[in-house]
Design brief:
EC 2.4.2.14 (chains A, B, C, D); alpha+beta; amidophosphoribosyltransferase activity (chains A, B, C, D); Glutamine Phosphoribosylpyrophosphate, subunit 1, domain 1; about 500 residues; Rossmann fold; homotetramer; 26 strands; six-stranded antiparallel beta sheet; glutamine amidotransferase (chains A, B, C, D)
Amino acid sequence: MMDLGHTPTTSQPSTSDEWDLDGDTLHEECGVFGIYNAPDASALTALGLHALQHRGQEAAGIATYDGKHFHLERRFGLVGDNFSDASTMERLAGTAAIGHARYSTAGGAALRNVQPLFAELDGGGIAVAHNGQFTNAMTLRRSLIKRGSIFQSTSDSEVVLQLIAKSRESNIVDRFIDAIRQMEGGYALVALTRKKLIGARDPLGIRPLVLGDLDGSPVLASETCALDMIGAKFVREIENGEVVVCSEDGVKSYRPFPRQPARLDIFEYIYFSRPDSVLAGRSVYEIRKAMGRELAKENPIDADVIVPIPDSGVPAALGYAHETGIPFELGIIRNHYVGRTFIEPTQQIRALGVRLKHSANRAVVQGKRIVLVDDSLVRGTTSSKIVNMMREAGASEVHLLLASPPITHSDYYGIDTPERENLLAAQYDLEGMRNYIGADSLGFISIDGIYRSCGYEGRNNDAPQFTDHCFTGDYPTALVDVDAAENHRAAALLVETD
Amino acid sequence: MMDLGHTPTTSQPSTSDEWDLDGDTLHEECGVFGIYNAPDASALTALGLHALQHRGQEAAGIATYDGKHFHLERRFGLVGDNFSDASTMERLAGTAAIGHARYSTAGGAALRNVQPLFAELDGGGIAVAHNGQFTNAMTLRRSLIKRGSIFQSTSDSEVVLQLIAKSRESNIVDRFIDAIRQMEGGYALVALTRKKLIGARDPLGIRPLVLGDLDGSPVLASETCALDMIGAKFVREIENGEVVVCSEDGVKSYRPFPRQPARLDIFEYIYFSRPDSVLAGRSVYEIRKAMGRELAKENPIDADVIVPIPDSGVPAALGYAHETGIPFELGIIRNHYVGRTFIEPTQQIRALGVRLKHSANRAVVQGKRIVLVDDSLVRGTTSSKIVNMMREAGASEVHLLLASPPITHSDYYGIDTPERENLLAAQYDLEGMRNYIGADSLGFISIDGIYRSCGYEGRNNDAPQFTDHCFTGDYPTALVDVDAAENHRAAALLVETD
Amino acid sequence: MMDLGHTPTTSQPSTSDEWDLDGDTLHEECGVFGIYNAPDASALTALGLHALQHRGQEAAGIATYDGKHFHLERRFGLVGDNFSDASTMERLAGTAAIGHARYSTAGGAALRNVQPLFAELDGGGIAVAHNGQFTNAMTLRRSLIKRGSIFQSTSDSEVVLQLIAKSRESNIVDRFIDAIRQMEGGYALVALTRKKLIGARDPLGIRPLVLGDLDGSPVLASETCALDMIGAKFVREIENGEVVVCSEDGVKSYRPFPRQPARLDIFEYIYFSRPDSVLAGRSVYEIRKAMGRELAKENPIDADVIVPIPDSGVPAALGYAHETGIPFELGIIRNHYVGRTFIEPTQQIRALGVRLKHSANRAVVQGKRIVLVDDSLVRGTTSSKIVNMMREAGASEVHLLLASPPITHSDYYGIDTPERENLLAAQYDLEGMRNYIGADSLGFISIDGIYRSCGYEGRNNDAPQFTDHCFTGDYPTALVDVDAAENHRAAALLVETD
Amino acid sequence: MMDLGHTPTTSQPSTSDEWDLDGDTLHEECGVFGIYNAPDASALTALGLHALQHRGQEAAGIATYDGKHFHLERRFGLVGDNFSDASTMERLAGTAAIGHARYSTAGGAALRNVQPLFAELDGGGIAVAHNGQFTNAMTLRRSLIKRGSIFQSTSDSEVVLQLIAKSRESNIVDRFIDAIRQMEGGYALVALTRKKLIGARDPLGIRPLVLGDLDGSPVLASETCALDMIGAKFVREIENGEVVVCSEDGVKSYRPFPRQPARLDIFEYIYFSRPDSVLAGRSVYEIRKAMGRELAKENPIDADVIVPIPDSGVPAALGYAHETGIPFELGIIRNHYVGRTFIEPTQQIRALGVRLKHSANRAVVQGKRIVLVDDSLVRGTTSSKIVNMMREAGASEVHLLLASPPITHSDYYGIDTPERENLLAAQYDLEGMRNYIGADSLGFISIDGIYRSCGYEGRNNDAPQFTDHCFTGDYPTALVDVDAAENHRAAALLVETD
């Protein structure tokens, strides 16, 4: 899900982990969830979204169908803050529900962009929630507007809805399939109609989607951790290019696209998915530890302590420590009370910067040669400050190791990456980056290293097992909108604050 | 503007004058305003809407165009509470603006129903605000949905927007005209495009719309009082069936409908328009006083004091007092601090009922024969309580006179009337009504009397000068949706709380 | 009740009638209410305060005792907005309650200044609400602080509470009397203890307080209109200098001060009390009409219409019209939807100024010689704008008559008057004022005229029947704090926003 | 700081980490901070409080003095959410400031209980913030009320303020000392007067307080991590029984109490202080690791993985892992987005319970013999659920080890412990506890073990180096209020919601 050039004029409250000094983090934009034929469907959906909250903390929404009406609630803020009170949950009546947790770009957005989106169709309604990004959304949007469609949001996800509404197919599943066949990009979709819960994954399976079972009720979720949360059993992954339809007749599978090998986004392993999730049969936590071990093999350093940059660097740091025998220590303490902290920092607070979220544990660091381990390096601004903080705390040497290769390209499949010119690795070579960061040494895992961590011998360059475009520039689909170079004009017509 | 069977599950705050004990009041549903080519267009629009606030207090919205973007702000509550702070007004940049003040039915509605509504069209955007009601909206809506349109609101006004978006005409004015030609009903519309401000009045001119001029900038408003507020000069009324287009080329007039005599809604004189407005060349205040005089001629009563039911009954009561020489006295004091008062009244408060808003001025009433004068009688519940309150305050006789005929039929052109079975005059004859109210006598002005008050000899039954359907059942247009008897199903699919 | 030099740094929302262009209105600062031994005591108190809302709209509070605990709720805003929901009213459990409606000076204040105030005493608690002002509060406050008292508010009312807490008397009534004996000024007080409801009026009876009866339950209220609201019978006024104590033993009267003739503040008749209230046996409405008649005798004008400045000028205008036979007409329409309107007016709105609240009814005014009637003239800024608005609407002559004498002195008994140098009548002679206002003529009722309107032959200068210090400078009590010229330093130590 | 029997009727939002299923956590109630003679004193105080946020997340307040006025802002919620916007910080003008972060008991409290508290004294004002609890507060409060003091809060901290106000000493430092000499208990106090910043620590030094220096400006803080946050140097700890006064004359030390050995609360090492703080010369992180090693020596277990209960159990688990060589693994993932989550959980959410905050990392746990390490065991409810969650995730053995001895006694010095009958270790013997928890084995560190972890040979029973009353019942001061057994009556007179 992506905002199409919309530049809202007010900011919505951002939540804890979004806070970063200068956008020096990657953000997955969404998590989706759906459940069919279960009592308390909305409460279960709220729990599922809570488990997926790491995929998007800005806003959340739930749609239900109670046999007569659809109910839709969309709110800014955390799921738990908005979908727990009795009155909200009572309004979300029904035994089928879908939900969406969303991260959004720069500074906020209007409520009408929050998902699920809803459309009244001839013969019923449909609610849709989307994780990912369509690479031809702008192009299709312009064409639909020419044909008289009115868009209610500036979200690229609405294009699917409009295509469904416009489809000449007679039944809802065919209309849904008709719509996604016109879309390019990476996506996991869940949709709710009066009689069905639908799930779909893009032809390459770039974004994840799993099927679970809760006492006979089918469940769809971005990650297995959402199944664990509600006590549902994992059944299987939705395959790349597959559409599943849950109804009174059980779960049916459709394959509207030509078969091809899956190419999951490798970043799901590196950063986005929760460590306790299992993705394509592999434990995310174990993959990350393996990356740490691989990192150690590729970048052995003579040091006193291994210090993870919390929390994302912890599993790789453990792997590094296990591989090398160097003690793993909490040399950086993370402050979990950042909240929406310091939204308008004074100059002084800005200068103290990184300490709002991380502080040095001097007892661990002082006089030591330390290896900092993190998952990835984006702009480098935070890393630079953390390295400096370690030196101020008395570290005698500071080495920075990353459990992913240098990020040299932007993403167009649902990850909010900086413009390419702001990616540190797109600006500098290794020594330039090291100098910018101020570390004694800087190291990255190799491209093949991450494939090895996943159990392969290395990257199969003829048919890569994953999509790794941020490291390689090897985009797995056409980038229609980018090529049309018209992104910026689209949908910027209206500026509205809710 | 009418809600299409939408039954929202939460209530928005209602504002002062909406508060009534049991819906015993008529409500106009909207006021519209537009200005073109004026600095501070949004501030002027806010002022204009403030002057039209009596036409709708539930919500308000303003749309502007700044040469590059449209800006839209819609809020629940009074104009002055929402459109006065610097940051909101700065966001509403531009020299052209339209605005809308809205009353809404039963208990509230979602923000997406608040106007202006906006659509991005091929080659530009359009914002539309609507006072009135379309009598074939549901029928058209169903047809549009069949053809793939997605509605963002449950408001009947959106049908116009969808028809504009779907029109095959090439320029925006032709598309607008193409759309309204398909609509039936009573309406005043203002619309804002990138280069034009458009105004339109229904073929019969049921709802009012005037053209003004502020230092060369054209202004559109539901009533002249909005022109007075901003210091604009009155130019002329928009004629029935006329479309005016304000652009850099000045104000152009279009006549897309066959010419026919106008039939303004007589209720604009009786109740809705502000007393200081001038409508069809007549002062509303003077008409109301004339109705009071006519009432006195038709219903002479031997009494000690004339007591208006404030505030709506004041001009007629003055007319009655002037005609008869009986003293006009404030026998009922109105509490203007009702606010959103007592939204959840306790049983005890409910029992004390009417006193929250009105209290007896015993010094005026005690031992006196009083004539209460009000503008109209709807359900009769409030009148009954006021009569009783007068008796408790010691009145020896209580007579109730109404400056309008008995209301026997519902409205379908933008007035929120109770179902017909709840209209007192549809249930009882005169004596039955008097008995229900508990007054010593009850009198109404005659149908011809109101026409005489407006300067005619009486009603021209062959070609009535106004529409007076609530008194006569003589509906001036087809009631397509009512006849299709399908109102209730439509648009009830989605229940969403903002 | 007066704020002691406290200059808060944020503003609370002001409510409708407080809105005035440049503070050109007088404000009574409070209304009080109490009820003993009645089911739903808090709901009845909310209703009573609603009826007293004209005496203060900024904030309100209610304290109850339920046999075990005191409950206290204090809120900014209208009574009806804050004391009607079920949960608030349930928290305010008990059969005895007191309440307070408050207007406050310049821009707002902290919640801790909102009344009732509460203190835990040895052997019980006490809640106190106060209308009026103590003229020696600062002096006593300084002395109490020296002795170790900690003040929780900057309200002068808290001095009473501190004196009660410090009193060496053994029972609560004696402690209360001990406290008020030390206070100077004008006040009506209600207090609630575990077993008693106490009411007290200052030795001269400057501020009003009445005793009512609701089915055997004693009621105290600032005005009779609050008794009418809840259906209670008027029993009698609390006399000047009287303390009444309502308990299981009935209502007992105490006379702790030397007897002296009462001197009610004449402004209660002129402006503050509600027209349907009866004060010292006289109908406020009838007194105001009598003032209008007296004004006509003293200032006969050859004019076409009498136009009240709404709403405060209406009764006097009716009196003037009745006396002279010149028609009474609504030449100015008041906009009741001002709300908290236009808190931050833009320059343009500021220029249009007075029209936000008042607009000219051109049909009445054009080409006419009009007499504007208002209750009083304070700074003159609003009057000047209204006169100008009348001229713009086409009036051929505009005369302004005031139903009170020129205000030349500030008040120190609970009315929020401008500093003396800002009172128009303290700056100019009659011709100077007329010139400032821009009227063709300007007239005031005479001092003796207002006494005649109240049924006297004139002012008894040896023993004036009322206090009329704002017109005469004849302050009826010592002005201890003013004489000590130390007002400004006191209590300005702390600035806190709630 | 302790609430005195106050049972408020509404709940304030609780923040993230407070959320626990059934109060199964210990809560420190406060952190304090002060700075003198520094530009941006309030911004630095906000940063300092942010670093101390782990000591209390319910509410925070800052008081400043700008040379003329004191400014006070108190808010519910996180420091970063409330003390970062420009307007708030501008209001908090001045170069001297104190601040307070607060946790509060069961369900919320009124804003007037939030600190700092303020009193206007003869000759100036004083603001006070307090961490800890006075064991004779109720007794003193009753005595003060008898003498005429009015309490503005129900907080025991206000007693200090009232004693200062009442003191007959002539200067403010002597009055402060006079006051604390009358108090019993554990406390760290900071106070701000017009010319001084005062800090004080109870005679035994039960609660911590340190002195720092920021470019010549003295700083006081509960922990060294707050000094690190603002870049201040650690100078020294305030000694037990010491009062320090920072003024233009520098930092002066007073010793108003007889000298005695310090007895820091051992819980500061075990749980409360932040791992990167240094307390009494010892790194909290290193002490906790040492406790883990000691735990391993006392409770060696043959297991496959060491799993910390995050986040509090991490350092001890690392120590255990280092000592034993068993791998440290993240077998439990903590959800940091709990927010104010699920304030009104549905029954279903309640059943899923512990997963909202913690989830099992099956890949680590399945088929393994695991040792769970946590810092302490209170009620046992959460531990029981976590043990069960580990079994459901496939653990073959689950052992629970605690890095503190069994908690058998309540605290009265500022820690919010359950009533004694709800402490698991007060109800059961070791086997009973193990059975309740459902673990295969349960182990605690010994009393001597924790002393050894701190560098001693063991507990000196004649003169214990710490206070460890929760484990031993050896309370270091008189428990005046407890002995008077009158806790419950006090201050419960008033129930007020802000």
